[in-house]
Amino acid sequence: MSVRIGFIGVGGMAKYHIQTLKGIENANIVSVYDVNLEAAVQAAESVGASVKDSADELLDSAAIDAVFICTPQFARGELEETAARRGIHMFVEKPLGLDMNIVQKKAQIIHDSGVINASGYCLRYLDTVRKAKAYLQGRSIHMVQANRYGTNHPAKWWRTLEQSGGHLVDAVTHQVDMIRFVAGEFREVYAKFGRTNIQFQYPDATIYDAGSISFSMDSGAVGSITESCISPYHADAEVKIFGRDFFVHLSNNGTTLSIMDEEQKITETSEIDFYQEQNKTFVNAVASGVQDQILCSFAEGVKTLAVSLAANQSEEEQKKIVL
Q1: Contact 169/191 with Cβ under 8 angstroms?
Q2: Element (DSSP H or E) covering residue 107
Q3: Signal peptide position in this chain (predicted)?
């Protein structure tokens, strides 16, 4: 079955998706929409698709089977609800929003509709990450440490806290999700954020430039996440998981896995294009009608969003937040 796909939003992330979908035999991008007409035309011409005048026009169940929603998190409106009610399967880029009440209502509507759905937590599709998850099953974790350091997105909206949610919500969310996927659920978070240097580069920025988040987990394990979005000389993204008789290290954004215990000391690097794997899985799920193939549904993405929004709430209210 050829899956007819529409795109709403054709910015940076959408370009990755479009490029990988070109290499998937049963994926057929037929229509695109973006508020930036020039960008929409360029994207459409690259795949032989048509340009629609509005998102509502694109969401036509007679014309498409599935939609990739790649607009920024502040600009989603009711796109997901409309797609679900029209029976259109959907892939929604992370993060899924900035208001838990709104995204939880969206999740319920999507669930009730029965459409195939996925959220953009692509690192779950790495073989290294899945191997770490399998190794940790049944093992007792006592501590998790994670970090993500690097620079920021060039768009002004990304540097506006009310539109992006900040670096943690928009980018470090991948490390939050990796922790959830391989180690279990968060129970409590306590966060401290700073804004001491970003204004020298962007005077109008309202996001935090660094953060430190402490957390506990349902298993009883404790951990921390540190992050910076103004680190031009050192970039890193990793998750370390400690047990009394093992150590697991997912480095290079999860693409390298190290496992140490009494019987082994191994390090391996993934050869998988995780965007390709993620999108192939979604397309095949739509073609077959089987949701279970997808490693991160919309509802799963909501759970990850809840952790990062709780951290923002913790900073604002200066207290621990129980999830």
Answers
A1: no
A2: helix 100-113
A3: none
